[in-house]
């Protein structure tokens, strides 16, 4: 429904820990008209420049809390609200070089009243500043 708004234009950057670039992050929204409990987020598949990122290298953060995708499966006390921008962080030594990158996100969400688990995908190009 809101698949064209999944990946936000702002917030695409490399991340560092103790002065070392350890990956990159971007902002994403929920493509569903209601919020969902975090345990209902079954997968967030990230692809950058045609390379699929392993599930264990993806982190999800909202309101100052972070989880691995496996940890989301048992997170029953928090939600991802409609319109809320979550930070998706990808562990990748050295991050990404400056310039344009093709970013794809596929969100697999368990919706309580649907007899199937839909995956909503969006792909865009974003500029990573130097």
Structural features, described:
- The chain has 130 residues and is mainly β.
- The chain is built from one helix and eleven strands.
- Helices cover 3% and strands 49% of the residues.
- The chain starts with 12 loop residues before the first strand and ends with a strand.
- This is C-deglycosylation enzyme beta subunit.
- Keywords: Carbohydrate metabolism, Lyase.
Question: Nutshell version of this structure?
Answer:
The chain has 130 residues and is mainly beta. 3% of the residues lie in helices and 49% in strands.
Present the secondary structure layout.
Layout: E1 13-17, E2 20-28, E3 36-37, E4 41-48, E5 51-52, E6 58-62, E7 65-68, H1 69-72, E8 79-80, E9 86-91, E10 99-109, E11 119-128
Antiparallel strand pairs: 1-2, 2-9, 3-8, 4-5, 4-10, 6-7, 6-9, 10-11
Number of helices: 1
Q: Mean pLDDT across all residues, rounded? A: 92
Strand content: over 45%
What is the CATH architecture assignment?
Answer: Sandwich
Order of helices and strands: EEEEEEEHEEEE
CATH topology: Immunoglobulin-like
> Biggest sheet, in brief?
5 strands, antiparallel
Widest sheet, order of strands:
1-2-9-6-7
Rg for CA atoms: 14 Å
> Percentage of helical residues?
under 10%
Structural class: mainly beta
Number of domains as seen in the coordinates: 1
GO molecular function: lyase activity
Organism: Paracoccus aestuariivivens
Protein name: C-deglycosylation enzyme beta subunit
Keywords: Carbohydrate metabolism, Lyase
